Amino acid sequence: MTVWFVGHSALAQSFTRGHLAAMASRLHLRIHFAPITERERFASLIKHGLQSAGCKQTLMSDSGLELLLQGSQGIPRKAGNILKTAMRLAVTKGLNHLTDDLLRAAMEEVT
């Protein structure tokens, strides 16, 4: 049987305590994904995610992408949370794109 544990680094730390230590000894592989700090790789990840979700248009400017990279610190989960919040804010304003100001507002709301 193969079991995958996927989660925050705190999950890995919880396996080192008490009754879960025996399970930790049976884990064969642990991978930590480092933040994506290269602008082109980050842009590619965001573009792929948006396209996979069915987005056919450009949602943000290059400066907006740079704001997202800085605000998320290159962590895909944080970028997703910022984007989700920004899209929610865009809908309430009747926008079909994410302005830099909207991304800044989303970052303030998320953090």
Q: What does the model show?
A:
With 111 residues, the chain is mainly alpha-helical. The chain is 57% helix and 0% strand. It contains 6 helices and no strands. It has helices at residues 9-14, 21-24, 39-52, 62-72, 76-92, 100-110. Helix 4 crosses helix 5 and helix 5 packs across helix 6.
Features:
111 residues, mainly alpha, 6 helices, 0% strand
Structural class: mainly alpha
Strand content: under 5%
Distance between the termini: 39 Å
Task: Name the helix and strand elements from N-terminus to C-terminus, one letter apiece.
Answer: HHHHHH
Low-confidence stretches: none
Q: Tell me the number of helical segments per DSSP (H or I, 4 or more residues long).
A: 6
What is the molecular shape?
A: elongated
Over all CA atoms, what is the radius of gyration?
Answer: 18 Å
Largest sheet data: none
What is the helix content? 55-70%
The count of β-strands is 0
Q: What would the average pLDDT be, to the nearest integer? A: 90
